Amino acid sequence: MSKLTSLFALGSLALGVATGTPAAEAPAVRNVVLVHGAFADGAGWRAVHDALVAKGYKVSIVQNPETSLAADVEAAKRVIDMQDGPTVLVGHSWGGQVITEAGTDPKVKALVYLAAIVPDVGESTETLETLPQFPPPNNDVKKTADGRYYYMDPAKFRQNFAADSSAELAAFMAQSQVVLSVEAFATPAKAAAWKTKPVYAVLPGADHTVSMDLQKYMYDRAKAKVTKVPGSSHTVYLSHPDVVVKVIEQAAAGK
Question: Where's the AB hydrolase-1 domain (predicted)?
Answer without folding.
Answer: 32-246
